[in-house]
Design a protein that fits this description.
The protein has one domain. The protein contains twelve helices and six strands.
Length: about 350
């Protein structure tokens, strides 16, 4: 080969072809390296802490279950065991929910902790829930979707089992004319399950949940709260996996919906409206953010949205007041006379 052939400059077309091939090769290398799961970091598991939190939380939930059963623990401390059915059911739901996250994270080689359970005062169900700690963001939107959706779906299945079993031990009774109670809101799913097992509830009657059915209802409500598409809640993971950076817009739309529910239905939604203001609306990106969800995961996102709609309750809690007598003969005589005097009438 002649010297001028070895050292001649490439033409513009040749240079463009080489640069495109080099760019494609480098992008492929980057993509392969980015999709390779990170090696989990070695962190010493403080098993004693997880077990302690679990035992303390189980104890506070058991006490709450006993109080719900009307046990006076000051007079009868041994009656605390009456709260075991509620505690076993609710703690099982929370544990299965968190283990769904944990095992899916381990499958995708995302370093994650065992569940941390949060005890609460016994008069507040006995727990603030549970969570796992991930040491890194999943490497892809597909892995992020799997980790985010696994918990709610696993907890949902456990809650359905508890709710159905509990419904068979629940009872339909007349609404008392004295005293007050707490009415639990119905979602589309709970209405369907109640109708399937008990049929239509007669007028003037109410379905009184057994402790296990109440634990299932709490499990449904926890699933809804986790599926709110804001920040790094489970719903935030799932929505970001599907929408990418557009998740930020939908997070703020969801926040507006929570505010409307707080204004119109239940003041407790204000807490969940403050939550993203403190911890943030946005979700951090994955390392392969440009690769969208494909295949069955896109259908899985739609199913998860339908799950949220089936379980959502705008007004979860409401006071239940005594029922008023509906017939004139049911009203005490003295009350009839008082009403007549208020109207300026006299008895015949």
């Amino acid at each position: 080969m002649k010297w001028w052939q070895r050292n001649r400059q490439p033409t513009a077309a040749e240079a463009e072809q080489v640069s495109l091939e080099e760019l494609a090769r480098r992008l492929e290398e980057i993509s392969v390296a980015a999709q390779r799961p990170a090696v989990p970091t070695v962190r010493k598991t403080r098993l004693w802490l997880h077990l302690t939190l679990f035992v303390v939380t189980f104890s506070t939930v058991t006490i709450n279950g006993a109080l719900l059963e009307g046990v006076d623990l000051l007079q009868n401390p041994g009656g605390v065991w009456a709260g075991l059915p509620f505690a076993v059911a609710l703690m099982s739901i929370l544990t299965i929910h968190e283990l769904g996250h944990y095992f899916t994270a381990r499958y995708h080689r995302v370093p994650a902790s065992l569940p941390y359970f949060l005890p609460a005062p016994p008069f507040f169900i006995g727990t603030f829930g549970a969570f796992i700690r991930m040491e890194a963001i999943p490497h892809s939107r597909a892995a992020l979707f799997d980790v985010g959706a696994a918990g709610p779906w696993a907890g949902f299945v456990a809650a359905v089992v508890a709710f159905v079993i509990g419904l068979y031990h629940s009872r339909v009774e007349p609404v008392p004319t004295d005293g007050m109670g707490l009415e639990l809101g119905d979602s589309l799913l709970t209405k369907a399950l109640v109708y399937w097992i008990h049929g239509p509830v007669p007028e003037g009657h109410a379905l009184y949940f057994s402790p296990v059915a109440f634990a299932g209802w709490v499990g449904f409500f926890v699933t809804v709260l986790n599926l709110l598409p804001m920040g790094q809640l489970d719903g935030g993971h799932v929505t970001y996996a599907f929408l990418g950076r557009r998740h930020a817009v939908w997070a703020r739309i969801a926040w507006g919906g929570v505010m409307i529910c707080a204004l119109l239905f239940w003041p407790g939604w204000y807490f969940w409206a403050i939550f993203p203001l403190v911890l943030g609306f946005d979700h951090p990106p994955t390392r392969t953010d440009w690769i969208p969800l494909r295949g069955w995961r896109r259908a899985g996102f739609i199913m998860t949205c339908l799950l949220f709609l089936a379980l959502f309750v705008p007004k979860p809690l409401a006071p239940m007041y005594p029922s008023e007598p509906t017939h004139r003969q049911d009203v005490p005589v003295e009350r009839q006379r008082e009403q007549m005097r208020e109207l300026g009438l006299q008895e015949a």
